[in-house]
Specification:
Blueprint lengths: L6 H6 L5 H12 L3 H6 L7 H15 L4 H5 L1 E4 L2 E4 L12 H9 L6 E5 L5 H9 L4 E6 L2 H13 L4 E5 L11 E6 L21 H4 L7 H8 L1 H4 E10 L5 H10 L3 E7 L5 E7 L1
Parallel strand pairs: 3-4, 3-6, 4-5, 6-7
Antiparallel strand pairs: 1-2, 7-9, 8-9
Helix pairs in contact: 2-4, 6-7
GO molecular function: nucleic acid binding; peptide chain release factor N(5)-glutamine methyltransferase activity
Catalytic activity: L-glutaminyl-[peptide chain release factor] + S-adenosyl-L-methionine = N(5)-methyl-L-glutaminyl-[peptide chain release factor] + S-adenosyl-L-homocysteine + H(+)
Pfam family, one: MTS
Length: 270
């Protein structure tokens, strides 16, 4: 980046997507969107130019904005985000909304494969009376999740667990999960942001349904009769997940569409 460059010139002809450029400039220079406009004639110092250039280069290499900034908003909450966890996505907010709508007063909630803690923290923040447990097999992910829970002053119990293994005989009123569901070898795994995200949180290295089967198979022991199981899944997996739930004896089995019209969450009552 040339010395003496102005903020306005970067905004007019950014080396990447204009919106992303504004986001990264705001982050690098600690300026609001309004300040970017009002200070458009400001000449960047060499240190500022170097900082901006470093962030632009990271993005040009494909690194996700959420990892560059170190956070992503989910359900109105800013969540710390690192390569140890999946980037929280807006379509997963549907899972939170469905759980909140079905929650008894002082419900016991289990979030399986919590990652950044997005789902568990959003539920606990919205309904402080709920007793929320979140588990993950990754210690790195749990460290991020605990940091996020502290940031938003939410009460969530975090457990290091390979699915139900650390729960003993505990039972819950609602179980929610956004498990790894991408089929092994799917070309999307080597494209876009997914290239940088933890692969074990994206794919089960099989048919995309093995984690979902494990969750369903554990419900007789860990989900109370009359309790809801709600799971996010791939765009083409809704029918298969409904069939798995029906075979386990669930009732009121159904799928819900996200804002893009894709069947994104499937669940039922034990």
């Amino acid at each position: 980046m040339q010395p003496g460059i102005t903020l306005g010139s970067l905004l007019r002809k950014p080396p990447l997507d204009a919106l992303e450029a504004r986001i990264l400039l705001s982050h690098a220079l600690q300026l609001s969107r309004v300040q970017l406009i009002t200070q458009s004639e400001r000449i960047l110092s060499q240190n500022e130019a170097d900082a901006v250039n470093a962030l632009f280069e990271r993005r040009l290499q494909g690194e996700p904005i959420a990892y560059i900034l170190g956070e992503r908003e989910f359900f109105g909450l800013a969540l710390h985000t690192t390569p140890d966890v999946l980037i929280p996505r807006s379509e997963t907010e549907l899972l939170v909304e469905l759980a909140l709508d079905r929650m008894p007063g002082q419900a016991r909630i289990l979030d399986m494969g919590t990652g950044s803690g997005a789902i568990a923290i959003a539920i606990a923040h919205t309904n402080p009376e709920a007793s929320v447990t979140a588990l993950d097999a990754s210690e790195g992910a749990l460290a991020v999740a605990r940091r996020n829970a502290e940031r938003h002053n939410t009460r969530v119990r975090f457990l290091h667990s390979d699915w139900y293994s650390a729960l003993g005989t505990e039972q819950f009123d609602i179980i929610v999960s956004n498990p790894p569901y991408i089929v092994a070898g799917d070309p999307h795994l080597s494209q876009g942001d997914l290239r940088f995200e933890p692969v074990d949180a994206l794919t089960d290295h099989g048919d995309g349904l093995s984690a979902i089967r494990a969750i369903i198979d554990g419900t007789p022991k860990h989900l109370v009769p009359g309790g809801w199981l709600l799971m996010e899944h791939g765009y083409d997996q809704a029918s298969a997940v409904r069939n798995l739930l029906l075979r386990q004896g669930f009732r009121d089995v159904q799928s819900w569409q996200d804002l893009a019209g894709i069947e994104r969450v499937t669940g039922g009552i034990r």
